[in-house]
Amino acid sequence: MQMVDLKGQYQRIKPEINNAIAQVMDSCHFINGPIVSEFENNLSEYLGVKHTIGCANGTDALQIALMALDLEPGDEVIVPSFTYVATAEVIALLRLKPVLIDQDLDTFNVTADHIRAHITERTRAIVPVHLFGQTCDMEDIMTLAKEHGIYVIEDNAQAIGAVYQFADGSKKRAGSIGHIATTSFFPSKNLGCFGDGGALFTNDDDLAGKIRMISNHGQSKRYYHDRIGVNSRLDSIQAAVLNVKLKYLDEYASSRNTAALYYDENLTEVEQLKIPVRSPKSNHVFHQYTLRLLDGSRDDLVAYLKSKGIPTGVYYPLPLYNQKAFEKFVPHDFSLPIADQLCKEVFSLPIHTELSYEIQDQIMGELLSFFN
Ligand SMILES: *Cc1c(COP(=O)(O)O)cnc(C)c1O
Predict the structure, then answer these.
(1) Are 151 and 126 in contact (CB under 8 A)?
(2) Whose CA is nearest to atom 3 of ligand 1?
(3) Which residues line ligand 1 (CB under 6 A)?
(4) Does the pTM exceed 0.90?
(5) Which of 42, 110, 331, 335 has its CA 20 to 30 A from that of 28?
(6) Pocket test residue of 59, 83, 193 for ligand 1, highest count of atoms within 8 A of CB
(7) Does domain 249-370 have CATH number 3.40.50.970?
């Protein structure tokens, strides 16, 4: 058993994928082939965003987004402490200051209230992460950012396809709301390719131009470089795979939801367990099905399940503010109680597009036996 079943997913669409890859092979347009812009256009249309710019991975996407904002060394960027390291790493890499903050205990996401407390004169950007598959409360965050003249970069590596609902009832896809958004096409993400890949999204023509330029060596035209850039491309084979899989993205989200509901129904009665809390303003695309075990025995449970052949994931075991690499950005005697608590309580069960009730029954049978 695995956390994700990429093999099973591939088997169902194998002829289509193989054909798409073969077309790239025949064309030998491996870099910047027409399929790359075709996929970018299709993804823009799907997300309801003006520009999609492919790049080499989700971490590069975050770095390029920050580079496009023309920040100065020491400028502060607010970022959750309970997230994957990539979100904060690129901030430090660019000699900016990551300001690591706490988040909501129920949805695992940062809120405008958490952010507000950390805004200073030097705050230039916020990177909300739509963790595990549902969006942050983007309306509140955008309002706060506007008040302070701060950029918002959505890290949408885990919630592609999720839909956020505004107070007036209008809806937007995650990744189409901030000034810039980023995503990853790492194979196990909800929209995954067959290698590394990523993308940036924006509705701003000026930012889109900068992002394209930065991701291609700061080039304005061939061999003329207007700014320092990087080499970060989505290659044609990955774009061909993604272009096929994009058609199934909503179907994939719905299989993940079916699996999540089945877990919910059977696990909700265990008192010590807290099933994933749904945000009232976002649907969930269940990149992860993450529970909290409230009685302090999470590590025992994970070990027990492992001994029974059931894989689990602990995303994440140590908050970023306690990581050695971020030591110098954290004040003395600083703590983030919710991040600490989450790191001790969370664990994720296998969730993917190929999960059957039989496999889930097996997982839940072993899980429930731990409590009996
Ligand atoms: C996966 C992930 C990334 C990084 O994506 P890569 O393609 O692996 O570089 C960034 N942020 C979050 C929240 C992620 O889950």
Answers:
(1) yes
(2) 58
(3) 57-59, 83-84, 86-87, 129, 155, 157-158, 184, 186, 196, 198
(4) yes
(5) 42
(6) 59
(7) no
- If you take atom 5 of ligand 1, which residue's CA is the nearest one? 58
User: Identical fold at 6-101+108-246 and 249-370?
Assistant: no
Write down the domain spans for the chain: 6-101+108-246, 249-370
| CB atoms closer than 10 angstroms to residue 106 | 13
pLDDT digits (tens, 9 = 90+) for 275-331: 999 999 999 999 999 999 999 999 999 999 999 999 999 999 999 999 999 999 999
Q: Whose CA is nearest to atom 14 of ligand 1?
A: 157
Number of the ligand 1 atom closest to the C-alpha atom of 86: 10
Provide DSSP, 236-304.
HHHHHHHHHHHTTHHHHHHHHHHHHHHHHHHHTT-TTEEPPPPPTTB----S-EEEEETTS-HHHHHHH
* pLDDT cut 90: percent of the chain above it: 98
- What is the CB neighbour count within 10 angstroms for residue 244? 16
For residue range 95-152, what is the model confidence (pLDDT) as tens digits? 999 999 999 999 999 999 999 999 999 999 999 999 999 999 999 999 999 999 999 9
CATH numeric code, 6-101+108-246: 3.40.640.10
Q: Go through the chain and tell me how many residues it has.
A: 372
Mutate which of 83, 184, 200, 288 for ligand 1 pocket (most atoms within 8 A of beta carbon): 184
pLDDT tens digits for 265-284? 999 999 999 999 999 999 99
Cα–Cα distance, 218 to 230 (Å, whole number): 7
Q: Compute the distance between CA of residue 139 and CA of residue 79 in angstroms, rounded to an integer.
A: 17
* Contact in structure between 179 and 204 (CB atoms under 8 Å): yes
Q: Which H helix or E strand runs over 293?
A: strand 289-293
Which atom of ligand 1 lies closest to the CA of 57? 7
Of the candidates 284, 48, 247, the residue with the CA atom closest to the CA atom of residue 158: 284
Tokens of 139: 């309306």
Residues 359, 262 contacting (CB under 8 angstroms): no
Q: Which of 129, 186, 200 to mutate to test the pocket of ligand 1 (most atoms within 8 A of CB)?
A: 186
- The CB density around residue 222, as the number of other CB atoms within 10 Å, is 8
Tokens 């649907």 correspond to 283
In angstroms, the Cα distances linking 371 to 90, 200, 242 are 41, 44, 41
